[in-house]
Amino acid sequence: MTKAFSILLVFIASLVPSIACAATLYVPERFKTIQEAVNAAMPYDTIVVNSGVFVENVLIEKPLILRSNTGPASTQIQAAIQNKPAIKISNASDVSVTGLSATGSSVAGALVSNSTKVTLANNQFTNNGNGMALYSTSYSTIRGNVSSSNAQYGLYMEKSSHNRIELNSATLNKDKGFFISYSDDNEIVNNSVNLNSWDGIMVFSSHGNKITGNRTLRNTYGIVISESDGNEVAENTTIPNLFLILPIVLIYFGMVSYFVQRNILKAIYKE
Amino acid sequence: MSGLLELINAFTNFSTLLASIGMILATTSFISGLQMVKAKGPIERKIHRGNGFISWTIFLVLAVLSFAKYGFSLWGLVGWTAGLFVIIIKLLIVHSRNRRAVKYVSWLGATLICMWLYVVYIHIPL
Question: Which of the pair, B62 or B3, is modelled with greater confidence?
Answer without folding.
Answer: B62
